[in-house]
Each structure stands twice: as C-alpha cells, then as structure tokens.
Amino acid sequence: MNDHSHQHSPRTLPRYSATFDQHSISEIERAAATGIYDIRGGGAKRKVPHFDDLLFLGASMSRYPLEGYREKCGTDVVLGSRFAKKPIELKIPITIAGMSFGSLSGHAKEALGRGASAMGTSTTTGDGGMTQEERGHSKTLVYQYLPSRYGMNPDDLRQADAIEVVVGQGAKPGGGGMLLGQKISPRVARMRTLPEGIDQRSACRHPDWTGPDDLEIKIEELRELTDWEKPIYVKVGATRPYYDTALAVKSGADVVVLDGMQGGTAATQEVFIEHVGIPILAAIRPAVQALQDLGMHRKVQLIVSGGIRNGADVAKALALGADAVSIGTAALIALGDNDPKLEAEYQKLGTTAGAYDDWHEGNDPAGITTQRPDLEARLDPVKAGRRLANYLAVLTLEAQTIARACGKNHVHNLEPEDLVALTVEAAAMAKVPLAGTNWIPGQGGY
Amino acid sequence: MPEFDLARSEVRELNQALHALQRETNETHWKVRNPGGKHALAVGLDLPITVEIDGHAGYYCAGMNKEATVIVSGNAGVGVAENMMSGEVRVKGDASQSAGATGHGGLLVIEGNASARCGISMKGIDIVVKGSIGPMSAFMAQAGNLVVFGDAGEALGDSIYEARLFVRGKVSGLGADCIEKEMGPEDREALEGVLAKAGMDGEVTPDDFRLYGSARRLYHFNIDNVDAY
C-alpha cells in the first residue's frame, strides 16, 4: 500500500511567484539574451491609483441638479490669458497632446488635426518640427519647443497658435526622446538634420538654459520673437508637481501642462516608463495648491494628462482643479491603434490587439506609429479624423452629464467637494474624503 | 542711421520696430545704444539689415536670426545667435555659454573666447571663435563647422553626429564617439570657406588646424558600446 500511496496523494498545483511573475521572468530572459534594455512605446501599464478610484456624489437633498438634456452646461476654455495678446479659445476642455511627425505617420497627424479642429480644440506638434500637413489641418496648433530643437525655426514659431516649452513628460521625466532607425525615413531625417536610418536619441536638457531663472529669460526671448502674441505653455512630467508648477509660474508661463506617468511616449526604456514619475491622480492637487498659493489658479491655466479615457476622467480632472485635459494614447486608439480587427497582424508581430506597444519599430499595422508608406496608406485620415471627433464629442457629453448631475452649469464649476474616494490611497492623493466618511488622510492630524 | 537708446526705451519697442520693417525698407542699418546687458536684443530678425549693438548684450542676443547682420561691440550673454537660420552675428568681445546653440545656418564669429557648450546641437551653422572654447562644446552637434583658433575644453563633441570641428590649439579631451580625423579635400575646402566668410583667411592657414568628428559608433544601439551610453 505504501508503494502506491504517492500516486494517489493530493499534490499542490504549480505556483507562480508573485514577485517573479511571468512578465518578470520573460524580461530577465530577454535581457540575458540581448544585453540591452527593453524599449517600447506607451505609458505605464502597471496598476496605479487613478480616476477610477474616485466617485462623484451627484445632487441630493443639499444639491440641485440641472436638467440633463435641456439646461446649458458650458465646456469652453481660454488658455493663455496671463500675458499673451492672443490667448487660445477652445470649445472643449480636451486637447490633443504633443506627438511628433516621425513617431506618427503623416496621415495620423492629419487625422488628429481634422478631428480636433472639427471639435474646436487644439493639436500639438512633437519632437520633429511642424509639418505643413499638420499646420494645414489643425485650426489651433501648439508648437512644442523641445531640447532637441529639431526643425525649430522662427517661421513655424510665428505660424503656431501657442508655444509649449517641454521640460519633461510623464512617461520619462528626466529623459530625452528616442526614435529608432526604422522610423528615420528620408523626410524625417531631413526635418531633423540627421543621417537616415540611425537610432536617434534626443537630449534630455535644453541646450541653452538650465533652471527656472534661465527659463524666465528664455520665455522672454520667445515672447519677443513673437511680439508677445502667443500663449506660452510649460510642460512637465509629474514628479514634484507643487514646486514644478510654482517655478513654471515664476518663469512666466501662461499655461502649465502636467503629464502623469500613464502618459504615453513614442519610445523609451520600459524601466523608465514604469519606475520614474507619479500617477496623474497624485499630481493634480499639489499643482492646484501651488497655483492657489500664488493667487494664480484660473489665471495660469493647468492642463493635465496621463490616462484620460472617458468623460468621467475628464470631469474628475477638472473637479480637482485642472482647466483642461490632454489626450494622446486615447486619441491614437480612436484613430484605430490596437484595433482587434487587426489581431492576425498583431499576432505576427508577437503581440495581441490591446497590448501592442512596439511603436518604435515602425511596423504598426494600423498605419499610425509608422513611416512605412504601405502601412501609412491603410489609415484614411478623413475617416480616422471623424472617429476622433466622435470620440471627443462623447468625452464632452459624458463630462457634461456628470457636471449637470452635480448641479453645475459649466464643467469648470465642478469641485473637489463633488468627489469621494474608494481607497485610502486615492483619498490621500486626491485630498477628497474616503467614501462614506469625512476622512481625508493626512488632514485633521491623522 | 536709425538709433535706439535702450536707456530710454524698452527692448520690446526695439524688437517690434525691427520686426515691423518691410523688405523694401531704406532703414537697413540700425544702432542700439546703452544695451546694458539686456536680454533678447534683436531677436527674430528676418531681413538683410545690419544692427550694431554698442555695448554688452545679455542672453539670446540675435536669437533665431535670419538674413540680418548683428554686431555686438562688447560681450554677449548665454545663447548668442541661438538657433540662427542665416545671416551673420559677430561678437567683438567674449561670449557666454551655448553660443550658436542649435543654429541651422549663417555665420557666428566670436572674436574673444566662448564659454561652455559652444555650438551645442548645432544643425548647420558655421561658428568661428578666435579665442578658446569651454567644456562640452559641440555636444550632439549635428551639422555645420566649428572653427576654434585657441583651445577646446573637456568633452569636445560628445555624442557628435556629422558636424566638423576644427581646432588649432590644444583639446583637453574628446567626448563619447568624437575622434580626430584626417582632413580630406572636402574638409579643407569647408574650413577655407568658413575662414573666408569670416574675413580671417589671411590670419591662419588650414594646416594649422586639426579636425575632429564622429566615429559613428553610437549611431545604432550596440551592447559593445555600453560604456558610451
């Protein structure tokens, strides 16, 4: 009997380590085989406290709602009213984040311009200069001023509707851009003054200023160059939002753009994306606090980004004190990125729809993150632009729905008092009470 | 000759007056008195006019210049002629950091010394420095020619792309992927052209200079170059 007992006794199931999970093991194997870090596009994929951890309270005995389909709920926003002679007026508080021609195809940039213009909002250039297609299809175009200064020239600066000085971005605060050789096509190379086909690594620091005192003088130069007409934004990755916002204001910014770690990039090291910077949920209140402490809230506008997906996210960001939000990854998905209809092609690339992030390799079957003409031709910029406009309309309607339910006749009238948190972490970060309590961690002495 | 006295006027008035000029203007030679080290003087010019600045200039003098000639009779602050597209900027004294940074074209002449990061990320500009240049000069320099009569500081040409660096004096050290190269006929022709444009072709001969440029080892990610990343 003893001889056979081991055949019938219960056995434990194979157990994966929570620490050395399958992804960690695959990364160790990949690193050991190649000797180089993993590079990918997109933003942080790990689960972090986010807008899903907040809820609106809506109207009740003490709050009066607006009629959902009849009463007006404004969504317009003015950006750059502090110093610029010509501030930007947008119909919706949702802008398109900076994404370069080079990282994106020409058709994708055109589609972004078409969709945003249809909804009365702005698009933004990226680390590769301004293309005429982009200028032509974007009614309101923000021109990024980056450390690389690729394609930077005074004519484009004057053609822009606003200038965004990029200090950092949420996916890689402290890091420069990256565009691998597959995407340095002849046109991209020419625009960037680079040899074709090289792996391009952009600088992480600006070449002619260091620190907020210098930035103040740089902004003065940009204003002089453009006769003080253009709003000047300063974009930072979310790390130390209170001080970064205060210093951006001190430097003379009209608008502060704050990008959380969920915000995407065309390409950078996976370790950078997942381990540097903080979630946008944790960054908004300190930034707003800095503006309030300086008497600048609503005078210097705050745009936040990083993981905005639906109108509830938009409404929550505005309720926490932002003036507008910016979308990048969601806009690309609206154009057709990671479309399940392309599953067979994603499988050939060793991935699956919904997880595709090898944007740097330039083989995007959707024709968005590529410079290959055969792939780019798949993206119809008119139809894709329409999809983006539809999506922006839905985000706006959803945000309005929530605002009306909270009794607000403008989305900017949403406020932290309309929110509660589902988790202690989110309550602490967003500085709103844990649902069902009046407890905001860190306040009231405990 | 129109004159602008910055002891009595604002920089904004100067720049707006210069920006308002039409291509057919007769006011092609301007003088700026009492600059007092003010910032952003004569930025964004885009006509073939001459602006003489009678004294010291602050940060970003002649930034993004196109076609114009800007002459600074004193010293210039950080980022003189930054992102210049064309034209000429001449500094009679010394220049601070990042002179000619990211310049796409045109000629920058510094008759004194230039501090750190001279020609950083240059994209086609020609720069001539009669004195010496500081450390980290020509960092990530993409295109154009940097000609230095004196010495160069540490880490010259770090992560350089396709710019040419001609140095007559001593080089304290080369940055990652920057090497000394043999001067070929095209390089020599480029050097002679820059010296002639700067009006200094009689002062030195190309044989006095050594050429530095990219080894092109960092153009593609390679684990064997890990020490340089």
TrEMBL record, chain A:
Q: What SUPFAM superfamilies does the record tag this protein with?
A: FMN-linked oxidoreductases
Q: Where is the Glutamate synthase domain?
A: 84-336, 360-408
Q: Name one Pfam family in it.
A: Glu_synthase
**Enzyme Commission identifier(s):** 1.4.1.13
Sorted alphabetically, which keywords does the UniProt record give?
A: Oxidoreductase
UniProt GO MF annotations: glutamate synthase (NADPH) activity
Task: Tell me the superkingdom of the source.
Answer: Bacteria
Q: Which family does it belong to?
A: Belongs to the glutamate synthase family.
Q: What is this protein called?
A: Glutamate synthase [NADPH] large chain
